[in-house]
Design brief:
Helices cover 51% and strands 20% of the residues. The chain has 173 residues and is an alpha+beta fold. It folds into 2 domains: 53 residues; 104 residues, PH-domain like (Roll). It has a 4-stranded antiparallel sheet with strand order 1-2-3-4, covered by helices on one side. A 3-stranded antiparallel sheet has the order 5-6-7. Helix 1 packs antiparallel against helix 2. The protein is elongated and about 65 Å long. The two termini are 27 Å apart. 18% of the residues are buried.
Length: 173
C-alpha cells in the first residue's frame, strides 16, 4: 500500500466534485436557456416555469455522478436515488457489462450489490488498489466464484494504462 495512504484511510473518487459541478452547470444552463427562449417568445407562465424547472431537475438526476468510496474491506457507491456497499473481502461475483455504458457489478456473500462505471477505477488508482486487495482476499477464501478472470483482465488493462501514462510522462516512450 502506498506510504501516503494509511491502512484505515477511506479513499474516494477524485473527480466526483468536478463531475457534480458539471451536472449542476448543465442543469442550470438548460433551465436558463429554456427560460430565455420561452420569455423571448412571450409564452412564459408559472406552469411552464415549473415544467422547465422539473426538466432541469430531471437532467440533474440523470447526470448526477455516483460517488464511489472504499476503505479496508469495503466499497460503497452513492447515487442520487440509491446507496449500496459491498464487503470486498467477501465478494462472490464480479460482472463487467461492456454495453453502451460499461458497468462493473460487484456482489458479496451478504447479499449486497453495487454497480458503477469502471472508468472510476481507471481514474483512481487507490480505489483500484482497495478493490484488488479485497478481491484477492475473497479469492483466497474461495468465495469469488464468478468473474475472477474478468476482474483480472480489467485490473491488468487498467494497470497497463497507468504504466503507459508513467512512461509517457517520463519521456521513456
Amino acid at each position: 500500500m502506498p506510504a501516503l495512504l494509511g491502512r484505515d484511510a477511506v479513499v474516494a473518487d477524485r473527480r466526483w466534485a468536478a463531475d457534480l459541478r458539471a451536472a449542476v452547470f448543465c442543469s442550470l444552463a438548460l433551465f436558463a436557456l429554456i427560460m430565455l427562449v420561452d420569455g423571448a417568445a412571450g409564452t412564459l407562465s408559472a406552469a411552464r416555469t415549473g415544467l422547465w424547472a422539473g426538466l432541469a431537475v430531471l437532467l440533474y438526476v440523470i447526470l448526477y455522478p455516483a460517488r464511489v468510496t472504499a476503505g479496508p474491506g469495503w466499497l460503497a457507491v452513492r447515487g442520487p436515488l440509491r446507496r449500496g456497499h459491498v464487503c470486498t473481502g467477501l465478494l462472490t461475483s464480479v460482472r463487467i457489462s461492456e454495453t453502451v455504458a460499461a458497468r462493473l457489478v460487484l456482489c458479496d456473500s451478504l447479499g449486497n450489490r453495487v454497480e458503477f462505471d469502471p472508468r472510476i477505477l481507471a481514474e483512481n488508482p487507490l480505489l483500484l488498489h482497495r478493490l484488488d486487495a479485497g478481491a484477492r482476499a475473497s479469492r483466497a477464501l474461495g468465495l469469488l466464484r464468478t468473474g475472477s478472470v474478468e476482474l483480472g483482465r480489467l485490473l491488468a488493462r487498467l494497470d497497463g494504462r497507468e504504466a503507459k501514462a508513467v512512461f509517457e510522462a517520463s519521456g521513456l516512450r
